[in-house]
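Appendix B. Raw example, untouched.
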Amino acid sequence: MTPEPQSHVPISLKVNGELVTAELPVRLNLVDFLRGDLGLTGTHIGCEHGICGACTVLVDGRLTRGCLMLAVQANSTNVETIEGADASGRLMVLQHAFHRSNAIQCGFCTPAMLLSAAELLRVNPRPTRDEIRDWISGNLCRCTGYQAIVDAIIEAAA
């Protein structure tokens, strides 16, 4: 006789530096857990196929599509959302540059774009415009045309 599959699994992880424990449905994706269960609504849900990048978070320091990762797969990891990055103050220079460059239109892509840009500047403090365009190519923006976003990242790098 085949055992009945588990419908809920206990997990324990750090989210924005705080320990979180929960018992979750095995099919719940990370972005739904962050938004619905933890109230961290800065991480957005867009295409739900990993294409638009609106659900981008950092998992153990790596950019990750929250819609493509099950919450139970995040067990024993460190997850950072835009709320955690913003609270740390490490996005302040980028946020000001985005504002000055008018790189924020509707704001839907902005949280993921900021996380991606911050990660780029961490690994490459002086990126070229082409390197920036390549790096943010996984974050879709329908409003700005990207030029203002690239300008903002260049400004923040300076």
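End of appendix B.
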